[in-house]
Specification:
By secondary structure, the protein is mainly α. Helix 4 runs antiparallel to helix 14, helix 10 packs across helix 21 and helix 15 packs across helix 16.
Length: about 450
């Protein structure tokens, strides 16, 4: 048994290597987790099922029962919430509500004429919009249509514009973000409470720091010159859809409702996150019926929610299931207990372990370009680590969650970075050269704010 955790370290290393080599993330994490649990059984571990879940009577069947338990719990709980949130965001895009919101919210930028002030404000605009448009790639596509030409028109280089747009979803804020929902679930609090009480106090100083760094860093590189431009690659960006201006309220309404009908404001009435999303979706469908008076078209568009829910299961929820199985393998082999004991012996404590786990998530994100995959793999370990070191779960998961998005903005293999680089006609390496210092400073401020406020 004493050897088992060290074998798990080797398996984790092989898993990381396969992820860096672009093997299918879901299957690598799932099979690694299954292998570690099976290995623990061979070493004599018999208690592998969670809580009071009864054994099948055969420990080898219990391994599959463990996977079934994880899949069932995630699909009906946090997974369902993520699916509905993703489906809602897709429907908002389908009816043009997201497009109108981006168009309206970007208008104030035209009132400023200092190029790099506009650039910094554009970054803050993107981070505001990510609370209601939680897809980094989807938001970047909208900003490429609206904000990119605006920035280049005021005198900012295409490389600077691409760098700012590439970091616009670096801090995955809001109750609709998949990683934020997972963090809230791990901490056993409502997503809106996590957003208001734990994300915002850390995010505000971090956003200011990154915006200031963008001002100076992008101006420095533009004055220095030397960027090599090629013909911009054709990025699949659809033109913004036309919709009534008041449709911009639809993406914002769920957050407003969740704040009003939560313990932050109202003592007796509670509105669930899924219920808020579905309520606004129903209202939007009715509005579309009044607008178009064509039930066939409106109903077809409304199905976007359910179709996108399936897509979210195939991409995000299944990844969380695989990542939790991987985390179960780490716990079953005793590796997490070893890490906690080592942290105590080294005098790390909660703060040191927070930095270590955030750094691990960041390293995996940098190498793979996937913040969701990296964060999902380690987020479910937070309660065990926090309990073992006597700290709060929120203080552990928040920097890990923010770090996964911020490190993604520094990865040349991240999809959003590749997309904005192609649109600007420069290499992804040229983009991350401009994002590394703003994001690096942001990460330092973010971790420091987490220690200070959480």
């Amino acid at each position: 048994m004493a050897l088992l955790p060290y074998i798990a370290i080797g398996i984790t290393g092989v898993t990381g290597y396969l992820l860096v080599k672009r093997y299918q993330t879901h299957m690598v994490l799932l099979l690694s987790g299954l292998f570690m649990v099976a290995l623990a059984v061979l070493f004599g571990v018999t208690n592998i099922l969670p809580g009071k879940m009864p054994s099948s009577g055969l420990v080898w069947f219990d391994i599959i029962d463990l996977l079934r338990s994880i899949a069932t719990r995630q699909s009906s709980g946090i997974g369902f919430l993520i699916m509905v949130a993703g489906g809602f965001a897709a429907y908002m895009s389908q009816i043009g509500a997201s497009d109108v919101l981006v168009r309206i919210s970007s208008r104030p930028l035209k009132a400023f004429h200092q190029p790099y002030l506009v650039l910094s404000l554009a970054y803050l605009l993107g981070q505001f919009l990510v609370t209601v448009i939680p897809s980094a790639a989807g938001l970047a596509m909208l900003l490429l249509v609206v904000v990119f030409p605006m920035l280049t028109a005021v005198g900012v280089s295409p490389a600077s514009a691409a760098a700012v747009i590439g970091t616009s979803a670096g801090m995955t804020l809001g109750p609709a973000s998949g990683t934020a929902i997972l963090a809230a679930k791990v901490a056993q609090i409502e997503p809106i409470i996590y957003f208001v009480k734990y994300q915002l106090p850390v995010a505000i100083p971090t956003l200011i720091a990154v915006a200031v760094m963008h001002f100076f860093v992008q101006r420095h590189y533009d004055l220095k010159g030397g960027d090599i431009y090629e013909t911009p690659k054709e990025v699949k960006v659809q033109e913004l859809k036309d919709a009534p201006l008041w449709y911009a309220l639809f993406p914002l309404l769920p957050i407003v409702l969740l704040i009003v009908f939560s313990r932050l404001v109202h003592e007796t009435i509670r509105l669930d996150t899924v219920s808020a999303l579905l309520l606004v979706w129903v209202f939007a469908v009715v509005s579309e019926l009044v607008r178009w008076r064509d039930p066939k078209k409106v109903f077809a568009d409304a199905m976007t929610l359910f179709k996108s829910m399936g897509t979210m299961f195939a991409t995000i929820v299944s990844l969380i299931i695989a990542a939790e199985m991987f985390a179960a393998g780490l716990k079953t082999t005793g590796l997490i207990s070893l890490l906690i004991d080592s942290a105590r012996t080294a005098g790390f404590g909660m703060s040191g372990m927070t930095m270590v786990l955030t750094a691990i998530v960041g390293a995996v994100t940098l190498l793979t370009g996937s913040g969701v995959g990296a964060y999902s793999s380690f987020a479910t370990l937070a309660p065990t680590v926090a309990s073992g070191l006597g700290g709060s779960i929120e203080a552990l998961v928040t920097p890990m969650q923010f770090g996964s998005g911020m490190f993604r903005a520094m990865s040349p293999v991240a999809g959003v970075i590749i997309a904005v680089a192609g649109a600007a006609g420069i290499s992804p390496i040229a983009v991350v050269r401009r994002t590394m210092l703003p994001m690096g400073v942001g990460i330092v401020v973010m971790v420091s704010a987490s220690f200070l406020f959480l």
